Amino acid sequence: MTDTTPSEQSPRGYGMQVGYRTLSIRVERKTPKSPPDPADAIASIDVHLLSVDEVYTRYSTHPTVGLEIAVVQLRERDGKNVISPPPTVYWKKTLNYIFGGFNFLMWIAFILTILSYKPLGPPQAFVLGVAVLLLLVIVISSAFYALVDWNASRIMKSIKSLIAHEAAVIRDGKQQTIQASDIVVGDVVVLNAGDRVPADMRVVQSSSDLRFDRSLLTGESS
């Protein structure tokens, strides 16, 4: 950006000299020091409350032109359009299998049984048998919790394989097919019958008979 200011007037007949001063503006894109809490990020979503024109304005996009390549390159710094699994802390999961849920009550019963082994009189085989039985229940219950968790993880991995791998977007006025993981915020995505939705999106234009099959998420038969 330049700021043009007139210099001192020269003698009559020689006109006016114009001096130029350059003003430099530095624009920095600040990134948060720590990632936002997912719950807060979801609660702050208000795109569904905006009008279509407000959506285009907020994300600097256009229904027929889409995003400019320069904007796409800038927003690619936010990361890929993929599901990021939470970090797995195995020792915490193991402790939860052993001491969590119903097992917590079993441990209390086991400790009380051990403490009552001698104070109530001579050692009795029945009390010791109850303690062993409770410990066996804890082991079986822990194994069951681990099996359920492993099965849930396996199902989630199979669901990820059903996610769309490619998507049709409009960029610089041209429709092109890209990897679904390369979609950025503000992309205008074109969906046809039978296509899988590649990301969380706001519908801005559709046919009157638009329908979505959500059986994969709800478990209901389509």
UniProtKB/TrEMBL annotation:
- Record localization: Cell membrane
Stored Gene3D superfamilies: Calcium-transporting ATPase, cytoplasmic transduction domain A, Calcium-transporting ATPase, transmembrane domain
Membrane-spanning segments: 97-117, 123-148
Ordered alphabetically, the record's keywords are: Cell membrane, Membrane, Transmembrane, Transmembrane helix
One Pfam family from the record = E1-E2_ATPase
The cross-references to PANTHER family, in alphabetical order and at most eight, read: CATION TRANSPORTING ATPASE (PTHR43294:SF21), SODIUM/POTASSIUM-TRANSPORTING ATPASE SUBUNIT ALPHA (PTHR43294)
Protein name (database record): Cation-transporting P-type ATPase N-terminal domain-containing protein
Please give the organism.
Rhizopogon vinicolor AM-OR11-026
Organism lineage reads as: Eukaryota, Fungi, Dikarya, Basidiomycota, Agaricomycotina
